[in-house]
Design a protein that fits this description.
The chain is α/β, with parallel strands linked by helices. Helix content is 34%, strand content 24%.
Length: 217
């Protein structure tokens, strides 16, 4: 079971809707929510909407970050509008993504319906991708090639891949490519890992090797 924490400002509308949608729509995922300045109550329109959709649970309530800070999560999601609000920070090396939505609080019921639809159509696929997929951004540098891994990537997996290359047990990279690489450095943390390759190696060679890697895929 994967665990997701949804954070916003008041924990009364968007994060509650997101929590309910993740629990209802994503198999094998358990979501909780909290806020930086929790209002202490769920917005009546948010509750009404979730009841109408058949996914309301009595356990859903507005709470502050300190009530869940000691729990282990596989992903932290912030849903605040960064232009107008300050999202809470989760002070642990947990993979994080931000998908902002305008706060429907104080608006008509139609705004809550629109927010529900946006969260279902935009946020849920991103949560699924972050939990079960790994993004690989390969770029050419002056000294070689950089690979930025994000999403459901574990630093230890990248380290293992590098060790396999150094010990000659890597089957994804050609011998010619291996000879071109002078050094490999891994930095970052789970969810955001950077692999820096130095040497006369080309971006296309590394992309081909990554596609074959059994460790990182």
């Amino acid at each position: 079971m994967k665990k997701v924490l949804v954070l916003c400002t008041g924990n009364s509308c968007r994060s509650i809707i997101a929590e309910a949608l993740i629990n209802a729509k994503l198999d094998g995922v358990e979501a909780k929510s909290s806020g930086v300045r929790a209002s202490g109550k769920v917005n009546p329109n948010a509750k009404k909407l979730l009841e109408e959709k058949g996914i309301w649970r009595d356990e859903y309530h507005s709470k502050t970050l300190d009530t869940v800070i000691d729990e282990q999560f596989d992903l932290v999601v912030t849903v605040c509008d960064h232009a107008n609000e300050t999202c809470p920070m989760f002070p642990r090396p947990t993979p994080k993504i931000h998908v902002g939505f305008e706060d429907p609080d104080g608006k008509g019921y139609e705004a809550f319906e629109a927010t529900y639809k946006e969260i279902e159509e935009i946020l849920l696929p991103k949560v699924k991708e972050a939990l079960y997929g790994i993004k690989k951004d390969v770029s050419k540098t002056n000294s070689g090639v950089n690979i930025k891994f994000s999403g459901a990537v574990k630093k230890e997996s990248v380290v293992k891949m590098v060790q396999n290359c150094k010990t000659g047990t890597c089957e994804c990279m050609s011998n010619d490519t291996k000879k071109k690489i002078k050094d490999m450095q891994v930095s970052g943390e789970d969810g955001e890992v950077l692999l820096e390759l130095s040497g006369e190696v080309e971006k296309s060679e590394i992309e081909a090797a990554l596609a074959k890697s059994k460790v990182i895929n």
